[in-house]
């Protein structure tokens, strides 16, 4: 009996041990297969029962866990979540979802390896993990976040409980239609997911069409959203389709509302005699325009006449858009929303209807036009003796392209040579004085494409920039500076305070970025002393820019300098313009294509009439909107250039080119080709002669074994091997 009993006990013990072992294996298998999904499932369970007190058994049952070892794992996980502040233990073994009593609203943003909510109240950021973002907030969305108890941790954490406003609800991409389902493939980095498209939501879109898609549904914990096609743009690869897709990505228009076009058509073309009588008449004074050869909207002109005593009168005449576009009108509202004209490679998306920008407001030759003018009397040293600002009527005598004016400057011969050479001489003196006073000699290089009838690029090169361009630039700068000084500094309210005005401001560069730029510049052998005073910084930088002219690194140094600078923007709070070294500066000279200039014209007219100041908060909001739209337009313009560069290089795959390393990243380095200025990536994976580390401080990739370096500014030879139209990227491989 004893033996039998012993045997029975032994067998029972073995069975229990086997069961424990089996349970452990099962749990291990679950953990291996699920990873963080077990924790996610537990959190998901509590978010679906936020007000219930739940015991560990119910949680385990929801996961399908039945053995004691599995339940113990659930208990340990629950205790860990209590320590993290996500749950609260009401009593032993019973838990409730712990949403902090404090709620915050802010903007959801993505950092390098995590996401945060930046609160509206400017308090500390709230870190949000993937599992605590059940509402699928995306970068730029305004959200409400619930804070978890801080406890011993210093960083704030929380969960997104509501998306208050999506940064965008529509996305642009390529439709993929397969046998079983369809979806939108988009390169938008904010949306790290495709958008599923039910067959009934395709709206006629076919495979490989570009389309605009609206997200219709995205449930909590659903990995992918479901959408519907809003508009089919056309077949991918078609020029019009791709340009419209770029505009749609940034919510920019590619057509003008008929209501605004009709309003423009109703504007009389004749100028009333009573309006002419109010203005200074310059129709008998020689006036010219100098613009790009393909320009249609001429918004500035220069008049010139000799005065006694060696003085010269130069009038800077700007199209008087404010006469035709009244505040609150349908045209004005549309212009404000756009805030700027957009210049893609093959087209212009105007701020104003064509009847205004290319006709009534365009300062075309031999046609009387209304202008807002800044008229200067200058001596032979280009010193302003006096100036006046007012509304005028002009009539341009001659339209010059930059190339034509440049030929007169270079040869000192041709039509109107006396006028052009006089203006050129004065402009160069103004330019020299401006740099002596601390302005930075930026000269950004633009590329221009030669397109065929279908819009395909057949050639691309740097756009020439000569002293004819500088002639126009200097007089526009003088007018902008003078207007800002007059109405920002000289004219005051009755209490002595400055009236509300819109300035173009540019802050000092960030100190850390400046030090980083110094390291970069010194790598090329140039001296760049560390400095904190604005004048010393600009002096050092100008010396390097001048010394690097006509050298391979010149463009890179200019690019690095621009990246180091703060972004210029519009504001009612004047801090001056660092890059131009102007205490007061505004934008007055391009109201056809920039809404801030139109606002400035209206303010000038108001204050010249003796009226009081406008509300600062209201105009600050206008300024901020214009700054934001300017940046959006710039991104679209850059994307159109990148697309055309990819299109251009797609016909040159396999060819070898010379270039310069223009940027270095942990995934490879970028090369700008010497002739075409097209930029492409040499991926890290193709550097197979060594394992390379990214040296961020020194802008380099460094081989671990052989210590070979690829550094910003190095000249290299590369072969074009791949063009990706959707990502707008060219891939190169190194040619040794």
Task: Tell me about this structure.
The protein is 35% helix and 26% strand. It has 18 helices and 34 strands. A hairpin with an 8-residue loop joins β15 and β16 (300-306). Residues 1-35 have low confidence and may be disordered.
Overall, the morphology is globular
Helix content: 25-40%
- Rg is 33 Å
**Sheet with the most strands, sense and barrel status:** 7 strands, mixed
- Overall residue-averaged pLDDT value: 88
Broad structural category:
alpha+beta
Measured distance between first and last alpha carbons: 88 Å
In total, the number of strands is 34
> Which stretches of 5+ consecutive residues score pLDDT under 50?
1-35
Number of helices: 18
Strand content: 25-35%
Strand order of the largest sheet: 14-21-20-17-16-15-22
Brief summary of the model shown:
This protein is of the alpha+beta class and 736 residues long. A hairpin with a 5-residue loop joins strand 28 and strand 29 (679-683). Helix 1 (2-34) crosses helix 4, helix 5 (239-249) packs antiparallel against helix 18 (616-650) and helix 12 packs across helix 13.
